Amino acid sequence: MNKPSPHLVPDPSHGAHDHGKSLFVTANDGLRIHVREYGTRSSPGLSVVCLPGLARTAADFDELAPAMAAGPPQRHVIAIDLRGRGHSEHDADHSNYNCTVELADIVSVLIALGVGPAMFVGSSRGGVLTMMLATVHPTAIAGVVLHDVGPVTEPKGVARLRGYLGKLPHPRSYDEGAEILRRLLSAQFPNLTHEQWLAGARRTWHLKQGALKPAYDIGIVRALAGIDIELPMPSLWHEFDALGNVPMLVVRGANSDILSAATVAAMRARREQMELIEIAEQGHAPILEGDLVRRIIGFVERCESARQGAAKAN
């Protein structure tokens, strides 16, 4: 990954605050990719890269990322809005909402910010992109957290996502948005509080020109239209095996319809040292908060200790 760095543009609308600072990195085709950056690039701990799901944003890491950056040790952490999501620019050509283009965007960000090797936290599609990255830039990855995603994606879950992506009503308030999410997702998340549903609504809709709009480009839905959900999704066992030399933690929601228990068992059969956290009463994907954040940080700390021990041995 030694090509010239893309141009970095600070985001004046956010600046430095409790949620890190916002930057824009210009992708190969000129589209501006939004990145939330925490800590400093000279931080002593492992760098961490957070990649959200299909129609998700960097906001999903608002608790995990600053906690990871604070340490000890302090770490350089970035959370990326994939193109068309969050504060990244929308692409006029919706066919560019595909993993190949998004992977190139991620590589551009890593180069621009001098990140690597890093711990990757990949939620859903972000985990797919992490597995793909391992096949083309394996040295970029020091360890991985696969957040409710694996080499096999269950078609039932894909059908559910396609059933509501781009079709949710536009709520008049975040409270109304919380109720929409509760009705839609309470089967997978039966025990969430109103405050948790409200936080989810704030991550799902953004206030734009006085109205709440989805935090993603509807063109992403058009890009999915060509997928035949009656056919099995292509498996990614080759990409999963490309992560064979780095520590791995898998986080699964016990109610997940995207990552099955059978797939997790098959993953563990190939990776005996793989760590697993299963979150009861949650589905796709478990909320990154509270005890789960602490357990993920504990995994990163173990990775750092192992790297230090290996360095001393050499």
| Second CATH tier, the architecture | 3-Layer(aba) Sandwich
CATH superfamily: Alpha/Beta hydrolase fold, catalytic domain
Principal-axes geometry comes out as globular
The strands making up the biggest β-sheet line up spatially as: 1-2-3-5-4-6-7-10-11
Number of strands: 11
Head-to-tail CA distance between termini: 25 Å
Q: Structural class of the secondary structure composition? A: alpha/beta
pLDDT averaged over residues: 91
Written as H for each helix and E for each strand, in order along the chain, the element string is EEEEHEHEHEHHHEEHHEHEH
* Annotated CATH topology: Rossmann fold
Beta content comes to: 15-25%
Uncertain parts: 12-17
> What radius of gyration results from the CA coordinates?
18 Å
| Largest pleated sheet | 9 strands, mixed
If helices are DSSP runs of H or I spanning 4 or more residues, what is the number of helices? 10
What are the SSEs and their pairings?
Elements: E1 8-10, E2 21-26, E3 32-38, E4 47-51, H1 64-70, E5 77-80, H2 99-112, E6 118-123, H3 125-136, E7 141-147, H4 155-164, H5 174-185, H6 194-204, E8 205-208, E9 211-214, H7 219-224, H8 237-241, E10 248-253, H9 261-270, E11 275-279, H10 290-313
Parallel strand pairs: 4-5, 4-6, 6-7, 7-10, 10-11
Antiparallel strand pairs: 1-2, 2-3, 3-5, 8-9
Helix pairs in contact: 2-3, 5-6
